[in-house]
Amino acid sequence: MTGTELKIVTPAETEVLGPEVDRLATLHTNARTDADLLTVWLKSHADGSAHTRRAYQRVGARFLEALHAAGGDLRRATVEHVQGALEAMRSKADGEPVKPATVNMYVAAVKSFLGFAHRVGFTRFNAAPLIKLKKAPRQVAQRILGELEVRKLIDAANPGRDRLMLEVGYFGGLRVSELVSLTWAQVIRRDSGEAQLEVVGKGDKVRQVLIPAVIAARLLASRNDAPPTAPVFESVRNPGHALTERAVNFIVKAAARSAGVNSAASVHWLRHAHASHAIDKWRPHHAGVGDAGACGSQDDVCLCPCPAGRELRPLPED
Predict the structure, then answer these.
(1) Among 4-13, 97-106, 112-121, 293-302, which is the least confidently predicted range?
(2) Which one, 67, 105, 204, 232, has least CB within 10 Å?
(3) From residue 306, how far is each of 187, 258, 314 by CA, in Å?
Protein backbone atom coordinates (compact mmCIF):
# COMPACT_ATOMS: atom_id res chain seq x y z
CA MET A 1 0.00 0.00 0.00
CA THR A 2 1.32 3.45 -0.82
CA GLY A 3 0.64 6.69 0.93
CA THR A 4 -0.52 7.00 4.51
CA GLU A 5 -0.57 3.69 6.34
CA LEU A 6 -3.90 2.77 7.86
CA LYS A 7 -4.00 1.46 11.43
CA ILE A 8 -7.00 -0.60 12.34
CA VAL A 9 -8.11 0.06 15.92
CA THR A 10 -10.35 -2.57 17.46
CA PRO A 11 -12.93 -0.87 19.70
CA ALA A 12 -13.44 -2.14 23.21
CA GLU A 13 -16.24 -4.65 23.62
CA THR A 14 -18.13 -2.26 25.85
CA GLU A 15 -18.06 0.37 23.08
CA VAL A 16 -19.69 -2.08 20.69
CA LEU A 17 -21.97 -4.04 22.97
CA GLY A 18 -22.62 -1.50 25.68
CA PRO A 19 -22.51 -2.06 29.44
CA GLU A 20 -24.32 -5.41 29.19
CA VAL A 21 -21.28 -7.15 27.65
CA ASP A 22 -20.40 -8.89 30.89
CA ARG A 23 -23.74 -10.65 31.03
CA LEU A 24 -24.47 -13.93 29.34
CA ALA A 25 -26.71 -14.00 26.29
CA THR A 26 -29.49 -15.52 28.39
CA LEU A 27 -30.15 -13.53 31.52
CA HIS A 28 -32.49 -14.86 34.19
CA THR A 29 -32.42 -12.03 36.70
CA ASN A 30 -33.17 -8.32 36.82
CA ALA A 31 -30.30 -7.71 39.23
CA ARG A 32 -28.01 -4.88 38.07
CA THR A 33 -25.51 -4.70 40.90
CA ASP A 34 -23.73 -7.17 43.14
CA ALA A 35 -25.91 -6.06 46.05
CA ASP A 36 -29.03 -6.66 43.94
CA LEU A 37 -27.89 -10.18 43.16
CA LEU A 38 -27.19 -10.88 46.83
CA THR A 39 -30.79 -9.95 47.59
CA VAL A 40 -32.07 -12.26 44.82
CA TRP A 41 -29.86 -15.11 46.09
CA LEU A 42 -31.18 -14.69 49.64
CA LYS A 43 -34.76 -14.73 48.35
CA SER A 44 -34.03 -18.05 46.63
CA HIS A 45 -33.51 -19.46 50.15
CA ALA A 46 -36.79 -18.08 51.48
CA ASP A 47 -38.01 -21.59 52.33
CA GLY A 48 -34.85 -22.37 54.29
CA SER A 49 -34.34 -21.76 57.97
CA ALA A 50 -34.09 -18.22 59.29
CA HIS A 51 -30.71 -19.12 60.79
CA THR A 52 -29.35 -20.11 57.35
CA ARG A 53 -30.67 -16.95 55.72
CA ARG A 54 -29.05 -14.76 58.37
CA ALA A 55 -25.76 -16.59 57.94
CA TYR A 56 -25.90 -16.23 54.15
CA GLN A 57 -26.75 -12.54 54.46
CA ARG A 58 -23.78 -11.94 56.75
CA VAL A 59 -21.31 -14.00 54.70
CA GLY A 60 -22.51 -12.66 51.34
CA ALA A 61 -22.22 -9.04 52.45
CA ARG A 62 -18.76 -9.62 53.88
CA PHE A 63 -17.59 -11.40 50.72
CA LEU A 64 -18.75 -8.55 48.47
CA GLU A 65 -17.06 -6.04 50.75
CA ALA A 66 -13.79 -7.98 50.60
CA LEU A 67 -14.14 -8.49 46.84
CA HIS A 68 -14.65 -4.78 46.22
CA ALA A 69 -11.73 -3.93 48.52
CA ALA A 70 -9.56 -6.16 46.32
CA GLY A 71 -10.60 -4.11 43.29
CA GLY A 72 -13.03 -6.60 41.82
CA ASP A 73 -16.73 -7.21 41.46
CA LEU A 74 -18.78 -10.29 40.63
CA ARG A 75 -18.82 -9.80 36.86
CA ARG A 76 -15.10 -9.19 36.48
CA ALA A 77 -13.81 -11.28 39.38
CA THR A 78 -10.94 -13.63 38.63
CA VAL A 79 -9.96 -16.65 40.67
CA GLU A 80 -7.32 -14.45 42.31
CA HIS A 81 -9.95 -11.88 43.30
CA VAL A 82 -12.11 -14.57 44.90
CA GLN A 83 -9.14 -16.17 46.66
CA GLY A 84 -8.02 -12.77 47.95
CA ALA A 85 -11.49 -12.01 49.31
CA LEU A 86 -11.72 -15.37 51.05
CA GLU A 87 -8.26 -14.90 52.50
CA ALA A 88 -9.34 -11.55 53.96
CA MET A 89 -12.35 -13.27 55.53
CA ARG A 90 -10.05 -15.60 57.48
CA SER A 91 -9.39 -12.82 59.99
CA LYS A 92 -11.82 -10.96 62.25
CA ALA A 93 -11.93 -7.18 62.47
CA ASP A 94 -9.56 -7.30 65.45
CA GLY A 95 -7.07 -9.45 63.54
CA GLU A 96 -7.92 -12.65 65.41
CA PRO A 97 -8.05 -15.70 63.10
CA VAL A 98 -11.41 -17.22 62.28
CA LYS A 99 -11.88 -20.85 63.32
CA PRO A 100 -11.38 -23.45 60.54
CA ALA A 101 -14.97 -24.68 60.73
CA THR A 102 -16.24 -21.11 60.34
CA VAL A 103 -13.92 -20.55 57.37
CA ASN A 104 -15.38 -23.66 55.75
CA MET A 105 -18.86 -22.28 56.26
CA TYR A 106 -17.76 -19.03 54.58
CA VAL A 107 -16.26 -20.89 51.63
CA ALA A 108 -19.34 -23.10 51.17
CA ALA A 109 -21.65 -20.07 51.20
CA VAL A 110 -19.46 -18.12 48.77
CA LYS A 111 -19.29 -21.12 46.39
CA SER A 112 -23.09 -21.29 46.47
CA PHE A 113 -23.37 -17.56 45.77
CA LEU A 114 -20.91 -17.68 42.86
CA GLY A 115 -22.64 -20.70 41.36
CA PHE A 116 -26.00 -18.93 41.59
CA ALA A 117 -24.59 -15.82 39.90
CA HIS A 118 -23.37 -17.95 37.00
CA ARG A 119 -26.56 -19.98 36.64
CA VAL A 120 -28.78 -16.90 36.35
CA GLY A 121 -26.48 -15.34 33.77
CA PHE A 122 -25.12 -12.54 35.93
CA THR A 123 -21.52 -13.67 35.39
CA ARG A 124 -19.69 -15.37 32.53
CA PHE A 125 -17.14 -17.10 34.74
CA ASN A 126 -17.83 -19.30 37.75
CA ALA A 127 -14.88 -19.56 40.14
CA ALA A 128 -16.78 -21.82 42.56
CA PRO A 129 -15.53 -25.20 41.22
CA LEU A 130 -11.94 -23.98 41.55
CA ILE A 131 -12.32 -23.13 45.24
CA LYS A 132 -11.80 -26.22 47.36
CA LEU A 133 -13.00 -26.84 50.91
CA LYS A 134 -10.45 -28.04 53.43
CA LYS A 135 -11.61 -30.57 55.98
CA ALA A 136 -11.71 -28.81 59.33
CA PRO A 137 -10.64 -30.84 62.38
CA ARG A 138 -13.56 -31.82 64.59
CA GLN A 139 -13.28 -30.51 68.13
CA VAL A 140 -16.40 -31.95 69.71
CA ALA A 141 -14.55 -33.39 72.70
CA GLN A 142 -13.19 -29.96 73.64
CA ARG A 143 -16.72 -28.58 73.61
CA ILE A 144 -18.28 -31.04 76.04
CA LEU A 145 -18.79 -29.80 79.59
CA GLY A 146 -18.86 -32.21 82.51
CA GLU A 147 -22.02 -32.57 84.59
CA LEU A 148 -20.57 -30.52 87.43
CA GLU A 149 -19.53 -27.79 84.98
CA VAL A 150 -23.04 -27.71 83.51
CA ARG A 151 -24.53 -27.37 87.00
CA LYS A 152 -22.11 -24.57 87.88
CA LEU A 153 -22.84 -22.80 84.59
CA ILE A 154 -26.61 -22.95 85.07
CA ASP A 155 -26.41 -21.87 88.72
CA ALA A 156 -24.20 -18.92 87.74
CA ALA A 157 -26.81 -17.53 85.34
CA ASN A 158 -29.14 -14.80 86.61
CA PRO A 159 -32.18 -16.30 88.38
CA GLY A 160 -35.38 -16.30 86.37
CA ARG A 161 -35.36 -16.13 82.59
CA ASP A 162 -31.63 -16.64 82.04
CA ARG A 163 -31.25 -19.67 84.31
CA LEU A 164 -34.47 -21.23 83.03
CA MET A 165 -33.35 -20.72 79.43
CA LEU A 166 -30.07 -22.59 80.06
CA GLU A 167 -31.94 -25.42 81.78
CA VAL A 168 -34.34 -25.78 78.85
CA GLY A 169 -31.45 -25.56 76.39
CA TYR A 170 -29.49 -28.29 78.18
CA PHE A 171 -32.29 -30.71 79.03
CA GLY A 172 -33.83 -30.27 75.58
CA GLY A 173 -30.54 -30.42 73.69
CA LEU A 174 -31.62 -27.35 71.74
CA ARG A 175 -29.71 -25.17 69.31
CA VAL A 176 -29.56 -21.46 70.06
CA SER A 177 -31.76 -20.77 67.01
CA GLU A 178 -34.35 -23.19 68.40
CA LEU A 179 -34.30 -21.52 71.81
CA VAL A 180 -34.88 -17.99 70.50
CA SER A 181 -37.61 -19.07 68.06
CA LEU A 182 -39.57 -21.02 70.68
CA THR A 183 -43.10 -19.67 71.26
CA TRP A 184 -45.71 -20.68 73.84
CA ALA A 185 -47.74 -22.38 71.11
CA GLN A 186 -44.89 -24.90 70.90
CA VAL A 187 -44.98 -25.70 74.64
CA ILE A 188 -47.47 -28.43 75.60
CA ARG A 189 -48.24 -29.45 79.19
CA ARG A 190 -48.24 -33.21 79.68
CA ASP A 191 -50.34 -35.09 82.26
CA SER A 192 -47.09 -36.38 83.73
CA GLY A 193 -46.07 -32.82 84.59
CA GLU A 194 -43.45 -32.72 81.86
CA ALA A 195 -43.49 -30.15 79.08
CA GLN A 196 -43.44 -31.25 75.47
CA LEU A 197 -41.67 -28.87 73.09
CA GLU A 198 -42.46 -28.89 69.40
CA VAL A 199 -39.07 -27.79 68.14
CA VAL A 200 -38.48 -26.50 64.61
CA GLY A 201 -34.89 -27.30 63.69
CA LYS A 202 -32.67 -27.13 60.62
CA GLY A 203 -34.50 -27.37 57.33
CA ASP A 204 -37.74 -26.63 59.21
CA LYS A 205 -37.76 -30.22 60.47
CA VAL A 206 -40.04 -30.62 63.48
CA ARG A 207 -39.21 -32.85 66.43
CA GLN A 208 -40.81 -33.38 69.82
CA VAL A 209 -38.70 -32.99 72.99
CA LEU A 210 -39.67 -33.58 76.61
CA ILE A 211 -38.52 -31.36 79.48
CA PRO A 212 -38.45 -32.78 83.06
CA ALA A 213 -41.41 -31.98 85.29
CA VAL A 214 -39.49 -29.84 87.81
CA ILE A 215 -38.14 -27.58 85.07
CA ALA A 216 -41.44 -27.73 83.17
CA ALA A 217 -43.25 -26.34 86.22
CA ARG A 218 -40.96 -23.32 86.33
CA LEU A 219 -41.21 -22.90 82.57
CA LEU A 220 -45.01 -22.93 82.51
CA ALA A 221 -45.20 -20.65 85.56
CA SER A 222 -43.10 -18.06 83.73
CA ARG A 223 -45.70 -17.66 80.99
CA ASN A 224 -48.13 -15.52 82.98
CA ASP A 225 -50.67 -14.15 80.47
CA ALA A 226 -48.48 -14.36 77.36
CA PRO A 227 -50.38 -15.29 74.17
CA PRO A 228 -49.49 -18.43 72.19
CA THR A 229 -47.52 -16.39 69.64
CA ALA A 230 -45.31 -14.73 72.27
CA PRO A 231 -41.68 -15.84 72.56
CA VAL A 232 -40.89 -18.08 75.51
CA PHE A 233 -37.68 -16.18 76.22
CA GLU A 234 -38.55 -12.53 75.77
CA SER A 235 -36.13 -9.65 75.48
CA VAL A 236 -36.23 -7.17 78.38
CA ARG A 237 -34.95 -4.33 76.20
CA ASN A 238 -37.39 -5.11 73.41
CA PRO A 239 -40.63 -6.34 75.02
CA GLY A 240 -42.75 -8.59 72.86
CA HIS A 241 -39.73 -9.78 70.91
CA ALA A 242 -37.50 -12.79 71.46
CA LEU A 243 -33.94 -12.59 72.63
CA THR A 244 -31.43 -12.57 69.79
CA GLU A 245 -28.94 -15.40 69.34
CA ARG A 246 -26.16 -12.95 70.10
CA ALA A 247 -27.81 -11.94 73.38
CA VAL A 248 -28.25 -15.59 74.40
CA ASN A 249 -24.59 -16.41 73.76
CA PHE A 250 -23.60 -13.29 75.72
CA ILE A 251 -25.68 -14.58 78.66
CA VAL A 252 -24.01 -18.01 78.46
CA LYS A 253 -20.49 -16.58 78.31
CA ALA A 254 -21.18 -14.22 81.24
CA ALA A 255 -22.42 -17.19 83.28
CA ALA A 256 -19.36 -19.22 82.24
CA ARG A 257 -17.02 -16.50 83.47
CA SER A 258 -18.88 -16.28 86.79
CA ALA A 259 -18.85 -20.07 87.17
CA GLY A 260 -15.18 -20.38 86.33
CA VAL A 261 -15.79 -22.80 83.45
CA ASN A 262 -14.47 -22.50 79.89
CA SER A 263 -15.31 -18.96 78.76
CA ALA A 264 -15.82 -20.21 75.20
CA ALA A 265 -18.93 -22.12 76.31
CA SER A 266 -22.08 -21.57 74.28
CA VAL A 267 -25.59 -23.01 73.95
CA HIS A 268 -24.18 -25.48 71.44
CA TRP A 269 -21.77 -26.73 74.09
CA LEU A 270 -24.79 -27.49 76.28
CA ARG A 271 -26.29 -29.39 73.34
CA HIS A 272 -23.12 -31.49 73.03
CA ALA A 273 -23.14 -32.05 76.79
CA HIS A 274 -26.78 -33.18 76.66
CA ALA A 275 -25.96 -35.87 74.10
CA SER A 276 -22.75 -36.97 75.81
CA HIS A 277 -24.29 -37.27 79.28
CA ALA A 278 -27.29 -39.16 77.90
CA ILE A 279 -25.02 -41.72 76.24
CA ASP A 280 -22.83 -42.06 79.33
CA LYS A 281 -25.71 -42.65 81.73
CA TRP A 282 -28.33 -44.42 79.71
CA ARG A 283 -27.60 -45.69 76.24
CA PRO A 284 -24.87 -48.13 75.23
CA HIS A 285 -21.97 -46.32 73.56
CA HIS A 286 -22.76 -47.69 70.10
CA ALA A 287 -26.29 -46.24 70.18
CA GLY A 288 -27.38 -43.03 68.51
CA VAL A 289 -27.04 -39.67 70.18
CA GLY A 290 -30.56 -38.52 69.39
CA ASP A 291 -32.21 -40.61 72.11
CA ALA A 292 -31.56 -40.07 75.80
CA GLY A 293 -33.09 -41.98 78.70
CA ALA A 294 -33.25 -42.57 82.42
CA CYS A 295 -30.13 -42.71 84.56
CA GLY A 296 -31.92 -43.80 87.72
CA SER A 297 -30.86 -40.70 89.63
CA GLN A 298 -32.63 -40.12 92.94
CA ASP A 299 -32.21 -36.34 92.72
CA ASP A 300 -35.24 -34.14 92.13
CA VAL A 301 -33.57 -33.03 88.90
CA CYS A 302 -30.81 -35.28 87.62
CA LEU A 303 -28.10 -33.66 85.55
CA CYS A 304 -28.31 -35.96 82.57
CA PRO A 305 -31.24 -35.52 80.15
CA CYS A 306 -33.44 -38.27 81.54
CA PRO A 307 -36.08 -39.62 81.53
CA ALA A 308 -37.36 -36.41 80.00
CA GLY A 309 -35.27 -34.11 77.91
CA ARG A 310 -35.24 -36.85 75.31
CA GLU A 311 -36.36 -36.80 71.72
CA LEU A 312 -39.57 -38.70 71.22
CA ARG A 313 -38.26 -41.18 68.68
CA PRO A 314 -38.40 -44.99 68.73
CA LEU A 315 -35.18 -46.58 69.92
CA PRO A 316 -33.13 -48.25 67.18
CA GLU A 317 -32.70 -51.99 67.32
CA ASP A 318 -29.51 -52.89 69.25
Answers:
(1) 293-302
(2) 204
(3) 18, 27, 15
Cross-strand pairs, 188: 196
Q: Across 155-248, where does the E strand assignment appear?
A: 187-189, 195-200, 206-211
pLDDT tens per residue across span 172-202: 999 998 999 999 999 999 999 999 999 988 7
Sequence-ordered list of residues with C-beta below 8 angstroms from that of 294, at least 6 positions apart, any chain = 282, 306, 307
**pLDDT confidence of residue 139:** 52
In whole angstroms, give the CA distance from residue 208 to residue 200: 9
Strand ranges for 74-213 from DSSP E: 187-189, 195-200, 206-211
Q: What are phi and psi of 8, to 5 degrees?
A: -85, 120
To the nearest 10 degrees (0 to 180), the angle between helices 100-119 and 34-43 is 100
**Does the pLDDT at position 18 exceed 60?**
no
Calpha distance 74→123 (Å, rounded)? 7
